[in-house]
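In response to the reviewer comment on reproducibility (Comment 2.3), we provide here a single inverse folding case reported in full, input and output, so that an independent group could reproduce the run without further information from us. The structure tokens appear first.
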């Protein structure tokens, strides 16, 4: 039967070409190959017998080959055979010896290793017993020593020998700390430690109690006292202990805590009262006391305190704690001294020498502290601070000055007004009698809607914010004599500043134009907008004077103009330039701020002349004696005014136009005074800052002034816009609306004039009112000139509305008995006056006025539009328009 082929047998095919074998050949390979090629169906006994025979033959062939090979090398074979036999014998002998050696080493009874192990174990046990005996002896003897020391400590504590007990406790503590390792784990050693702690704490407690009675701080009858007693009795004992022994015996932590408590008590109970309450320190024996009686010199009292501590406390301290404890007093003591000097910096020159003398004594006091060992290194804190005492004084004064300025700025009582002088060089325009009436004027009273007369003096106010407090004849908050005059201009507007009589006025030649006052810088942008192109006072001023100065011949004047038109005056008389004196209203706040700045300069000057800070030249700005910090507060005062004034009083200023425009006065006033102050200051940096402050004040003044003008102009424009362009005046209801708009604008302007007349200087007032009136007239003129058609009734009613504004000229009467100078400040005044006349004039009247150069203020296209709106289309109108379209007549051709 078949059998499985082993896995390790090779599976490769048998090559029939192999016909020889050697010692490395696999004889069964060919048979096995054959067997593997036979299937189950072809396998039979005959085939198996052939395989057996073949295998036997192969084996016989192999044996034959072996014999042949041995016979071929027989000597070598015999030699190798003998060698292999000898090797086998020697291996058997070596194995026998190895077995004998193993028995000698590892035999349990007689072997070497078991015997050694047993002997070593017995030796180790003996050594452990000896070690145990030594340790037991050492621990018992150590415990006995600790017990003896503990008994001795117990006896010392019981006998109140605190110093010896503390010394012994240190020794016992060291013993307990260095105990052998087995002993700390024992129960008896724990008992030793517990008893030791109890005894040590008891000793320290008694020492602390003795210290508290030796160094005793208390308050008796409002007097703080510190009493040092040495030696002091120990409680429940007849023994005494000295302060030196107490300091040496106290534990380090307890000693440090006691010294900190002592330092705190000294600072709070003695040093602080001396510096803050000016108390007096006295020493009586071993008692230091602080009495509330004022001391003449706190430094002396501090020296008494530190001397007492040096004599009664510091001398008994252990050397290990002396340096640290003494140095610990330096920083808090010097801090208290510096705080004292900061708080007591004087506010006046009279107290400064005493303060500086006290500072010198403080420096000497610090040197004595350092000499006695009370210091914190090489730095002298007090001496360094005193070296820069001038800068500290200046900073203190600067803070006080700025704080005083802040209080002034936040005080509402300082809103009261006060009049101040304003000096400037200007040309006063003198207009002869009849100069204003040379334009079309009507002397009949102006009626309002209810038939009542309206004038500048009695126009009722229309400002809804006006409560009557802002526009009185004098400021209700001002209690000075300057504001009690009936007329606020009587003290300056009509009187020259100099007492010398003015030279006789000289008349200008006819070809020279009259000099017009130069507009203020802040009004240039407003005047530029309202300045007419080619106007009467701008492009050809001589035409106005010549046309007004020559009386029109009666035979050539139209009948409609003989009653209404009067000739203009002779040439304007211009006196020489002279100094005039004006006043304007500023707040008490601005005056107080200026006074504060002046006081600062005076204080600096007084300090420089006094020489309290040294002999350095005050003329040298770089020297410390120039006091740059103190003088630098002056521009800061003005900057503080700009920053806080409007904010602090914003609510009141929002309700009062007079207060708002007075802020402009305040800024101008402070700016002009700052220029004077800069001349009294020799510090270049401060002068530069003053210049910057002046520029900012001027900018703020201009901005406030411009804002007030724009604000009032806008309010008047809002009132006039209710007239809706003055159209359809033939309707009674429309006429009533326009009439109310004109009257309300008149009231508003009157209210503004009353406020500003009290507040502003004369020139500023005239310029401001000139701007308001100019804008008002220009608004109405533009509306009238924009009308495409003006019926006869509308023309008559427009004339009446224009005449209602004639009293505005009274704002420009500078003094009683003089004529109004409205023409010098309102460029559209003559144009507006002629507009009222032209609204009811005939074409002949218009032609006559045009040919005489009286309408030079009107543009040609304006006259053309006006004629087209007033008159129906006729040949005469066309002829008149043609003549006017040719342009205004030249001055040399005017008939």
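Designed residues, in position order:
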């Amino acid at each position: 039967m078949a059998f499985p082929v082993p896995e390790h047998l090779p599976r490769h095919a048998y090559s029939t070409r192999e016909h020889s074998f050697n010692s490395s050949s696999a004889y069964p390979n060919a048979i096995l190959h054959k067997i593997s090629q036979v299937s189950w169906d072809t396998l039979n006994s005959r085939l198996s017998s052939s395989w057996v025979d073949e295998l036997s033959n192969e084996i016989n062939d192999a044996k034959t080959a072996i014999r042949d090979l041995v016979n071929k090398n027989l000597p070598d074979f015999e030699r190798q055979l003998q060698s292999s036999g000898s090797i086998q014998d020697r291996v058997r002998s070596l194995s026998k010896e190895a077995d004998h050696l193993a028995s000698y080493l590892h035999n349990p009874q007689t072997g070497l290793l078991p015997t050694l192990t047993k002997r070593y174990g017995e030796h180790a046990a003996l050594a452990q017993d000896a070690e145990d005996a030594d340790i037991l002896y050492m621990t018992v003897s150590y415990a006995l020593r600790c017990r003896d020391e503990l008994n001795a400590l117990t006896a010392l504590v019981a006998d109140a020998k605190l110093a010896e007990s503390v010394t012994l406790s240190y020794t016992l503590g060291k013993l307990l700390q260095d105990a052998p390792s087995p002993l700390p784990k024992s129960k008896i050693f724990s008992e030793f430690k517990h008893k030791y702690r109890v005894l040590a704490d008891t000793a320290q407690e008694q020492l602390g109690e003795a210290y508290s009675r030796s160094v005793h701080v208390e308050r008796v009858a409002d007097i703080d006292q510190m009493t040092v007693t040495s030696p002091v009795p120990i409680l429940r004992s007849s023994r005494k202990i000295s302060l030196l022994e107490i300091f040496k015996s106290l534990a380090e932590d307890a000693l440090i805590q006691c010294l900190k408590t002592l330092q705190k008590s000294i600072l709070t109970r003695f040093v602080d009262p001396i510096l803050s309450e000016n108390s007096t320190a006295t020493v009586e024996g071993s008692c230091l006391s602080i009495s509330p009686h004022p001391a003449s010199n706190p430094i002396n009292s501090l020296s008494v305190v530190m001397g007492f501590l040096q004599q009664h406390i510091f001398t008994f301290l252990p050397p290990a704690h002396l340096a640290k404890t003494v140095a610990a007093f330096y920083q808090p003591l010097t801090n208290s001294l510096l705080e004292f000097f900061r708080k007591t910096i004087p506010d006046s020159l009279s107290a400064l020498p005493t303060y500086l003398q006290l500072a010198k004594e403080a420096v000497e006091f610090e040197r004595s502290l350092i000499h006695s060992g009370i210091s914190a290194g090489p730095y002298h804190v007090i001496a360094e601070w005193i070296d820069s005492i001038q800068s500290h004084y200046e900073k203190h004064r600067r803070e006080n000055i700025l704080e005083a300025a802040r209080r002034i700025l936040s005080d509402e009582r300082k809103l009261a007004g006060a009049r101040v002088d304003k000096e400037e060089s200007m040309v006063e325009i003198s207009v002869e009698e009849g100069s204003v009436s040379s334009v079309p004027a009507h002397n009949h009273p102006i009626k309002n809607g209810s038939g009542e007369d309206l004038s500048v003096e009695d126009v009722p106010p229309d400002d809804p914010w006006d409560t009557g407090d802002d526009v009185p004849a004098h400021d209700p908050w001002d209690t000075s004599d300057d504001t009690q005059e009936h007329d606020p201009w009587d003290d300056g507007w009509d009187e020259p500043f100099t007492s010398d009589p003015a030279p006789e006025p000289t008349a200008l030649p006819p070809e020279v134009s009259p000099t017009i006052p130069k507009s203020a810088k802040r009004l240039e942008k407003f005047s530029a907008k309202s300045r007419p192109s080619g106007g009467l006072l701008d492009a050809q001023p001589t035409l106005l004077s010549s046309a007004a100065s020559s009386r029109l011949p009666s035979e050539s004047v139209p009948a409609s103009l003989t009653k209404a038109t009067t000739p203009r005056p002779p040439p304007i008389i211009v006196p020489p330039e002279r100094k005039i004196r004006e006043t304007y209203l500023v707040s008490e706040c601005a005056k107080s701020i200026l006074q504060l700045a002046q006081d600062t300069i005076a204080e600096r000057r007084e300090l420089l002349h006094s020489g309290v800070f040294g002999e350095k030249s005050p003329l040298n700005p770089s020297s410390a004696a120039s006091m740059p910090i103190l003088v630098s507060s002056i521009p800061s005062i003005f900057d503080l005014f700009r920053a806080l004034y409007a904010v602090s009083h914003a609510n009141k200023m929002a309700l009062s136009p007079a207060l708002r425009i007075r802020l402009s006065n305040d800024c101008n006033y402070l700016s002009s005074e700052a220029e004077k102050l800069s001349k009294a200051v020799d510090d270049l940096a401060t002068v530069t800052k003053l210049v910057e402050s002046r520029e900012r004040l001027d900018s703020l003044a201009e901005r406030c002034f411009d804002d007030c003008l724009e604000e009032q102009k806008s309010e008047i424009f809002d009132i006039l816009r209710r007239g809706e362009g003055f159209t359809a005046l033939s309707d009674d209801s429309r006429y009533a609306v326009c009439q109310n708009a004109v009257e309300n604008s008149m009231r508003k302007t009157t209210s503004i004039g009353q406020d500003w007349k009290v507040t502003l200087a004369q020139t500023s007032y005239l310029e401001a009112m000139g701007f308001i009136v100019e804008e008002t007239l220009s608004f109405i003129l533009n509306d009238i000139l924009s009308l495409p058609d003006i019926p006869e009734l509308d023309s008559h009613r427009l004339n009446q509305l224009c005449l209602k504004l004639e009293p505005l000229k009274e704002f420009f009467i500078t003094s009683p008995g003089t004529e109004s100078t409205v023409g010098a400040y309102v460029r559209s005044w003559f144009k507006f006056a002629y507009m009222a006349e032209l609204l009811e004039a005939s074409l002949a009247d218009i032609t006559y006025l045009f040919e005489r150069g009286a309408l030079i203020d009107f543009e040609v296209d304006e006259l053309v539009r006006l004629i087209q709106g007033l008159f129906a289309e006729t040949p005469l109108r066309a002829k008149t328009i043609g003549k006017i379209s040719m342009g205004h007549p030249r001055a040399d051709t005017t008939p």
